[in-house]
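User: Could you write out the 3D structure of this protein bound to adenosine monophosphate? I've included everything you need below.
Assistant: Certainly. Input first, then the structure.
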Amino acid sequence: MVEVIRTKAQLRAVRAKLTGSVGLVMTMGALHEGHLALVKAALAQTDNVIVSIYVNPLQFAPTEDFASYPRDLEADCALLDTLAAPASAPAGVEKTGVVRAVFAPSDAEMYPRQPLVRIDPGPVATRFEGTTRPTHFAGVLQVVHKVFSLVEPDVAFFGQKDAQQLALVRTMVADLDMPLQIHAVPIVRESSGLARSSRNTYLSAAEKTQALALFQALQAGSKAAAAGASPEQTLAATRAVLSNAPGVRIDYAELVDPETLQPLTTSEDSSSTPTALPARGLLILAAYVGPTRLIDNMEVTFHAHA
Ligand code: AMP
């Protein structure tokens, strides 16, 4: 059974005894295959893996689902234990690491008082997710910074599912000279295409079918880009699928540069025709399916017509 650690002092004690490289996977629990992909990547790349399971109140607005967010530490640990069996190493990957501990602190342990020094996540945090969730990324980076300080990992693993979070964590690590690497893990989807998410448990069977529109919209954009569409046409193809989808209310859908998250357009260079296309873009979107807000994204490759 994986060891569950409740206090920062215990975590530091466990960390101090580790030899070899340390990987960190931060989660809010209600673990699913998406989270396990992060843990598997960490096991394949580092000697010791720490998994944090903490529903961080700082990243929820008062109107959001902090209270109802699914919590099941026992089930989460049982899932992590399945990875301990050698047979579970993904094919072709040499498993080297061991999950050393699950860090599952209480709120009082994590925040003995309301923090006074706060991380300012900068301008990218005000867009996309930040439009609907203006305090979200400040809360995310606060807890990420704290857990980085406690675990001192060599590599931290984050999912591409939360593309804006990933970009902001990378920015924080670069801007604050934090001594670790960030490794991105691709989105894990159900066979239907629906991106795995702890919040999928909120969906009824009918809503789960309606939620497929998110993946279909991204696919439509991706296909359009591959067929020679401009960024504007690519985004329009994505939005068209979402706007026509029953039961789905679009929050935002944008096409951005995969690294900077700045919006992409066809560059208007009057000296050269045809106008220059970017090579790649990232379609990012959020939509409500019933009361549940879901996010998804997909990288697209543009193909200019000859
Ligand atoms: P969460 O528990 O939702 O805060 O997610 C914890 C980590 O797991 C984050 O780095 C997420 O991006 C990642 N993650 C969540 N769902 C998926 C998924 N479907 N595929 C890949 N990574 C995921």
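Residues 260 and 279 are 14 Å apart (CA to CA).
User: Perfect, thank you.
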